Automatic annotation (TrEMBL):
Keywords: Oxidoreductase. InterPro entries: Flavodoxin_fold, Flavoprotein-like_sf, Kinase-like_dom_sf, NAD(P)H_dehydrogenase_qn, Prot_kinase_dom. This is Nad p h oxidoreductase-related. The keyword Oxidoreductase applies.
Amino acid sequence: MSEKKKILIIYAHPEPKSFNGALLNKAIEIFQNQEHEVKVSDLYEMNFQAVATKKDFTSLKNPEFFKMQLEQRQNNMIDEIKNEQKKVEWADLVIFIFPLWWSGVPAILKGWFDRVFYQWPKLYDQGVFKEKKSLLSVSTGAPRSLYTERGLNGNISKILYSITHGCLYFCGFQVLPTSYHYSVGQSEKTAEECLLSWEERLKNIFDEKPLNFNGLKDYGERGLSQGSVHQAVTKTGQIVAIKKVPIEEDIDSIIKEISIMKQCDHVRLVKYYDSYFLDNELWIVMEYCGGGSVADIIEFCEITFTEDQIASIVKSILEGLVYFHSQKKNPSGHQSRKRTFN
Ligand SMILES: Cc1cc2nc3c(=O)[nH]c(=O)nc-3n(C[C@H](O)[C@H](O)[C@H](O)COP(=O)(O)O)c2cc1C
């Protein structure tokens, strides 16, 4: 017997007898047969409020100026919201069952995200829910062929990226590949065929691997870097850093950064080695600076710097700037000053 798990299903469809209703019933049946614990938030049945307002809080920290993120951090939400948050905290797996409406989730479900999730202090692969899995089940009116990369409606995984990545992975969830049920009973499979493959998938859902999204650690500078940064070893055994920048990003500023890095040679500046175009990315190979950024050191070591240490950091930065000015380069805005110090 496999380990007993806790599953929360967020169900967003107004009609229990619908195909989505059948997906919900099938999921409950499968998990209960496996003796897992199941909780359901049937949003229409609960009359869940879709619109986030001041009324979501029992008291306001700043009643003069309503700033939702500030208020959410006070943990003063009304019970309707707190109950949902507790269910999410309880669950090992959260499943969202909904129809695609106007290329997105029904408003009642969007409202659930707006009101229940908030910007917890840790995000993405370090997010508060990183031990939990999540899964979307989406039914569409249009057939699969319309939702391919070159199809009329566009790539459906990109359409739902705002949920899979922007909501779920943002809060730390391991996101399983979405279950798509295309044009059920019309141009695609029958409802029975869809329910059968849904059943087969759910039976072994806990063995599945999540989607491979880039983690915060790949982006340095608390995710602010323009592209992910990876450690690599050259054939001669030298450790280098490789920054991978998607070509569709602001490539002009990257090329400018490369041309500045190429001309610089100073102990306080990151050395540039080479760059390559690979598939849809530009790979920039440069000096590897272990230790991370100053902000990372403060956060991970949970320390504050002494005045001597701050003086040493500032001295290193100034040495880099003095070199820049002596070379008549413009250092503003680009990222190549070394952030570690000795
Ligand atoms: C308000 C609304 C918007 C819809 N928007 C889309 C859409 O953007 N793309 C699509 O493929 N189907 C769309 N549909 C069709 C539904 O996705 C489809 O009817 C539903 O997934 C079928 O499942 P059900 O029988 O459980 O309702 C929309 C339906 C409604 C009512």
